[in-house]
Every structure is written in structure tokens, then in C-alpha cells.
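SEQUENCE AND FOLD
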Amino acid sequence: MREMKKAFAVLLALTMAAGMASCGDSGSTSTADSTPAAESSAADETSAPETTEESSVTETEPVETEPPAPAVPDGYETVDLVSDYLGVKVSFAALNDGRFVGSEIKPNKAVDKYGRTEFAVSYYSDEEWKMQNNVKYTVRIKAIANDADDLNNKRYTPVEGSKYDGVWHDEIEDKTKCHYELYTENDSYLDGKIAVEVDMNAYADWMPMDDYKALTKTMLETMNIEVLDKNNLNDAKGNFPTASGLYTIPAKVTIAGKECETFWSVKNGAPRATVAFTNENGDSFKIMDDGQNVAKYVTSRQGDPDKHRFITIDGKTAMNDIDVGAIMTTSMLKSEYTVIYEMDGDSEINMTFNIFMGGSGDFTYDKFREKYGDDETQAELNAMFDGYAEEYVKQVIYKNGGEEEAAADSEEAAEKPAEGAPKQAEAANTEAFAGGLADDGREPGEEDTAE
């Protein structure tokens, strides 16, 4: 009997221990650990499940990660496209079944100078006639501002079936072609994001419409946009090479007596080297490289003095245009400068940058009229902008024929011009600027907008 009681006591103890474990007890048998739980108030008991649940989530649930791209289906293969400039890789599944004999990937180097990357991916069924009976993917990778797609989202049909937000610019209708754009999350690239623009074409009526829709759907579902490295935009010294490849903005620039660190900012579909500073009056400014996004031909605008001011910056001819209207939309006064580095006949090698004054609602049109509403104050404003522009240009590292001017890196270069240093405008060109620039074949105000 005594043995039965003893066994019963042991069984009872085990049952109680199991009950405590099922109520969330840690399983510890020490008196010190179990006493606080036994003496908990009703309020503690009410909150205990929440505490336990939070602890459980922290300890057992994995960190949330981006879902992997769907598996590549049969008859398809993965295509990887890497933008070396942007440090971004785009991957997708492309159709490659028995109807094709080969494929090729061609980068379009013509768009590199705009800070974007483009690839033509082609799968063809005839080695001799590659442009016929083929499927072609044209993929463009670019950086855009966070709100740059807002207008597209209002104007176009949203893309479905992709893990990224996007819109159709040209939907699939009665032909085997379409055009769409996908976007990563805000601030996923510098102070903006990455946009991937795709033209999808199957040659004429060679591919059945159902097959074309299936390969387009598969591309959307398997698209993956990966930011590899944003730091590769800088060179080995930490400077900021522009997309045009013509010049580099130093990592640190001194403007208005202050040393400012250069940073990247996304604008107009590309990263721009940017310098921000505040002058002695407390006014905020930002100087942003505009690269070669739209080539500016100073010579063709000489006949429009009402719109553009022609000045000299660091011994070079320059054109300036102040956009007062920008105040209404951006709370900033925008002053654009285009500086000619070289002249070769009718051709120009130039750089364009913008100086912005104000921002974030602190610069209004009324404030502009109050401070700069007459000829005298506007002349003072122009002189201030020109001074900042001159300081900036003098510090820019110019590249002639791809060779960097290294005067600042060598004592010898300080005594004599470095080999490959920029040519100053020849005397004949200087006289031409002074006496009314020679006609370069373009009408006044006309510019090359090809991208």
C-alpha cells in the first residue's frame, strides 16, 4: 500500500508539472524560478500570454525576407543583366524552347552617358536572319526619384502578376508586342529607387498570341531587381564621376567658404553628384550635376539674350538661365549653367549643372519678389550665383579624351599643364564668341534632345 501511495504521489507530481508546462511555464524545477509565477496578480496573468507570444515570435520566427522569385518553368532559362554603373542586377526567365537556335545579349553603350543601362536580348530561330522569327527583350535600367512614377500610375494600367509595382505603357492587344515598367521600393536606391523598363517583341505573326502572352507573363512573374552596390558610383579616391564620363566632381568641394561633402541624389532618371551648403545669410543651396542628359549648345542660343545670360566662368564661355517659375512648383529658385570646355569647329564639349536656392517650402514667390524684385537686387542675385558657379567649376576634375586632368595630384603638374589637360578656346573661337558666335547649323534655342 505504501508503495502504491508513493507511486501515486509521483504520478500526481508529474501530472502537475505537465500542466504547468502547457500553461507556458519554462519547465524549470527551481523554487526561485517558479515562486514569482505562483504569486502573480490577476493583472500579470492577463498580460502574460502577450509577453509569452512576443517572446515566442522573437525566438522562433525567422526574419521576414523578400520572397524568392518563382522557379523557372520548363522551356525557359534565366537571363542576368548587370548595370556596372548603377550596381544593379536584373534577372528574369526568358523563353528558350526548341524553336530557337541561338541567343545573344547586346549592351547599348549609347545610353551609358545618361547614367542608365540598356540591353537587347534576342532569341532567334535562324542563324542567318536573326532579326526575323525571333523574340526580343529590350531592358532599360535606371534610377528615378521616389515620386517619379506617380504620374504614370495615374495615366496607365497597373501591372499585375509581378512582385513589383508597375504600369503598362503599351498593353498586349492584337499584336505580339508590349511595353511596361516596374519599380522597386522608395529609397531602395540612394534617395530614390530603380525602374526597369521593358519592350517585349515577338517578330510579326510568327509566334502564336497565346505563347507570347505566356512568355510575357512568365517574365513579369520571375523578374528580380537586385541592388548590388551603390558605392561603385564613386571612384577609388571617393570622387564622383559623372555619367557622361567627361568630368568628375571631387568628394569634397569648398563653396562660400565652407567645405562640403559631395553626395549622390537621384533626378531625371539618373544619379547626380550633388553639393549642399548654406551661405552666410542662412540661405540654403544645392549644386547638382546635370551630366549630358540633354546636350546644351551654347553657340546656337547666342541670339536669345532675353532668355539667357552669356558670361565667363573660369575663363570659359558659359550660358546661364534662371528659372523663376520653379519656385511655384518646387519652392526653389533654379539657376542653370552650361560651360563650354572645348570647341572643335561647330562641336562643343560642355558641362551643365544647376544651382538651387531654397527648398522644402522655405522659399516662396512672394519671398523672391521681396528680396529680388527689382533690377538692382536681381543683379546682386546673379552675381552671387555666378560666384558659386565659378568656385564649383574651378574644382571640377575635367577629363579630356578619357584622361583625367591631375593637376591637383602632382607638384610637377602645378608648374606646367598636365598632358591631356583641357584645351582653352583658341583665339579664333574666342573672337567668335566676342563678336557673335558662328552659326553651327541650328536655329536659336534648338537643342539635341536625343537620349
In short: The first strand starts at residue 76 and ends at 83.
